[in-house]
Design brief:
- By secondary structure, the protein is an all-alpha fold.
- The protein has two domains: 97 residues, Helix Hairpins, CATH 1.10.287.70; 64 residues.
- 70% of the residues lie in helices and 2% in strands.
- It is elongated, with a radius of gyration of 31 Å.
Amino acid sequence: MKSARFNTFLQANISVIIPVVLTALVIILGGIAEYLVEHRQPGANITNLGDALWWSVITITTVGYGDYTPISPIGRLIGVIVMFSGIGIAVTLVTVVSQNRVQRMQERLKSKTGDKARVLANETKVTIQNKIEGIEKLTEEDFEGLVIMMKSLRLTLLAQSKDVYKCPRCGNDYRTKPKFCSSCGLAAT
């Protein structure tokens, strides 16, 4: 039971988990690499693993206090790699968070506009019923307007009632039931 919830959590948040894990890997591997390269250099101020990991954290966040700096060319190359990794991961995280926010806003907007469409359809039905009750008093122009209103309502209701098939893996929408999902290849059952 707990593993099913954990798997659901991982699947829902994989786009955030991957950059966080990459950040941790870059910090740990960059810190260890920096320590191995720098700790025996004369005049080095990164002489233990704790200092190297601290250097890696402040470097990946592009803060760079300057309290620990690599002095060897290989150490500086590792620093450049850690810096660019930090920038890339930060951009990825911002993109993922922004994309998730936009998707939530679109879903909210869809639900609001869907409710308005139903309300509008109900109002149109009431208007049509009222006009039909007084059909003998309608002018030719009002009668033609009623026919157009009825056709429009029918098309709206048909468009809303059509079955939409959704892929359970990737969420793609299909108007007709496919044999396979064109995005992820999942066989439709």
